[in-house]
Specification:
alpha+beta
Length: 408
C-alpha cells in the first residue's frame, strides 16, 4: 500500500473514531483545556503582579539596586548617625555613593525625604524638578523652601491638585500643609511625593531618623562581600539587593499560587484520564478492524499512529484552547480582583497583563506530553495481543490482560 494510501487510511480511521464518540472526546478536550487554562491564568496573574510590583519598588528606590535597612523593617527606621559611620567607611566597603532616605507613609501618599546632593549620584530618578512658576515667584531656591514638596504625575492625578497648590498630609496625628513646587519627572506611574530630607524630618517630627540608605556599589563589589563587611562592623543594618526584594515578593504570593496550581494539576490529570478512557474505548471498538488490516499487510506502525494521533490531536487542541482561555482568565482576574487575587499583598492598582511566549510554549508542551502519556496504555494493551486473538469474535473484552495472562 503506498504511503499516500496509509495517510488517507489514517485520516479516515481518526475521523471515524472521533465521529463514533464525539461527546467523550469533547469532554476530554475541554477537561485538558480547563487544566491548561487554570495553569496559564495563575502563571500570568502572578507574573504580571510581580513585574508591576517590582517596577513600583524600583521606582520608589530611584534606581538604587542595593540598600541598607533596619533588620526590623523599614517601618522602624534607624538613627541617622549610622549614615555618618557608613559614609565615613564607604571606600573600605566598596561603595561609590551613599544616599540617606526617609520614607513617610502619610494617609494620602508616600513621602520620600532625600538628600538632593547624594541622591543625584545614587538614585537620580528621585530628583525633583522645580516648576518655572514657582522659581519665578519665590525668593531663593524653591528646592529648600520650608514647605516645598514635589509630586509625580500619578500623585497629581491621585490627589487632584496641580503645581502651585497647597496640600495637607496627615501623619501620626498631625496635619502638615505643603505647597506643590514641581514634579518628579523620573518616576512614572507611581503616586509619590519627594522633598528635602531635613525638611521632611522637621515637618513630620522625625528629626534624626532614617528609613534606608541607597547605595552605589563599585562594579567589582558583590552584595555578599558587602553584607559580610556590614556584619563585621556590628551595625544594626542589613543589606537588601534587588534579588532579595524579588524573592520576598514571590514568597508573598506563594501560598495562593501553590493552592491554585494544585487545582490546575487536578483538572489537567482529570482531562488526561478522560483521554485515556476515550482511547481505551476506541481501541476496543476497532481492534478487530486493525487486526484485519494487519493481516492484509498494513504496517504495525499504523496502529501506533492512530492511537497517538487521537490523543495528540485532542491534547494539542485542548492545550491551544486552554492557553487562549487562560489569557482571557488572567485579564479578567487582574481587572476584577487584582494581581494578588484579593489577598491584599500588592498595590490596589491593576497591573498590565504581562504575557510570556516562552511560558505559554511550556504549557503547550505540557499538553502535548499529556497526549503522549495518555496514548501509551492503549497502545501497550493492543500490542500485547496477537492478530489472531484480536480477530476472534468476542475478544474485545480480553484486550485488557488479566493477572493470569501477565504470568504467561
Amino acid at each position: 500500500m503506498p504511503t499516500g494510501g496509509h495517510r488517507l487510511l489514517l485520516f479516515w480511521l481518526l475521523w471515524g473514531s472521533l465521529r463514533a464518540q464525539p461527546w467523550r472526546w469533547l469532554l476530554a478536550l475541554f477537561s485538558v483545556a480547563f487544566g491548561i487554562a487554570l495553569g496559564v491564568g495563575i502563571h500570568l496573574v502572578n507574573r504580571s503582579a510581580l513585574l508591576e510590583f517590582g517596577r513600583a519598588i524600583d521606582q520608589v528606590n530611584g534606581q538604587a539596586s542595593v540598600q541598607l535597612v533596619s533588620p526590623l523593617g523599614r517601618s522602624h527606621g534607624f538613627d541617622e548617625r549610622l549614615y555618618d559611620l557608613v559614609f565615613g567607611q564607604r571606600e573600605s566597603l566598596g561603595l561609590s555613593g551613599v544616599s540617606p532616605v526617609l520614607e513617610i507613609p502619610t494617609e494620602q501618599i508616600l513621602v520620600l525625604g532625600i538628600d538632593l546632593f547624594r541622591a543625584a549620584r545614587v538614585s537620580p530618578a528621585l530628583l525633583p524638578q522645580v516648576a518655572q512658576a514657582a522659581s519665578e515667584t519665590r525668593a531663593g531656591n524653591p528646592l529648600f523652601s520650608d514647605n516645598a514638596v514635589f509630586l509625580t504625575a500619578a500623585a497629581l492625578r491621585s490627589l487632584g491638585v496641580s503645581v502651585g497648590e497647597t496640600i495637607a498630609l496627615d501623619f501620626a496625628g498631625r496635619s502638615v500643609r505643603l505647597q506643590v513646587a514641581g514634579e518628579v519627572p523620573g518616576l512614572v506611574g507611581q503616586p509619590l511625593a519627594v522633598m528635602d530630607l531635613g525638611l521632611a524630618q522637621w515637618r513630620f517630627g522625625l528629626v534624626g531618623r532614617l528609613t534606608r540608605m541607597d547605595l552605589a556599589v563599585y562594579p567589582k563589589q558583590g552584595t555578599t562581600s558587602l553584607a559580610r563587611a556590614v556584619r563585621d562592623q556590628d551595625w544594626p543594618l542589613v543589606v537588601v539587593s534587588a534579588e532579595d526584594r524579588s524573592d520576598r515578593l514571590s514568597h508573598l504570593s506563594r501560598a495562593y499560587r501553590v493552592n491554585l496550581t494544585v487545582l490546575a494539576l487536578v483538572a489537567l490529570l482529570t482531562g488526561g484520564f478522560l483521554v485515556v478512557s476515550a482511547i481505551g474505548l476506541s481501541v476496543l471498538r476497532q481492534q478487530a478492524s486493525f487486526a484485519l488490516l494487519g493481516a492484509l499487510g498494513a504496517p504495525r506502525s499504523l496502529t501506533a499512529q492512530w492511537i497517538f494521533g487521537q490523543s495528540l490531536l485532542v491534547s494539542t487542541i485542548g492545550g491551544v484552547l486552554g492557553i487562549g482561555l487562560g489569557i482571557v482568565l488572567a485579564w479578567l482576574l487582574l481587572g476584577i480582583v487584582g494581581g494578588d487575587l484579593g489577598g491584599g499583598y500588592f498595590s490596589d492598582q491593576t497591573p498590565p497583563l504581562a504575557v510570556s511566549p516562552l511560558g505559554l510554549l511550556v504549557f503547550l508542551m505540557v499538553s502535548v506530553l499529556l497526549g503522549v502519556i495518555a496514548g501509551l496504555p492503549g497502545y501497550l494493551r493492543i500490542r500485547s495481543q496477537g492478530l489472531s486473538l484480536q480477530m476472534r469474535a468476542g475478544q474485545a473484552e480480553t484486550l485488557q490482560p488479566g493477572p493470569k495472562s501477565l504470568l504467561v
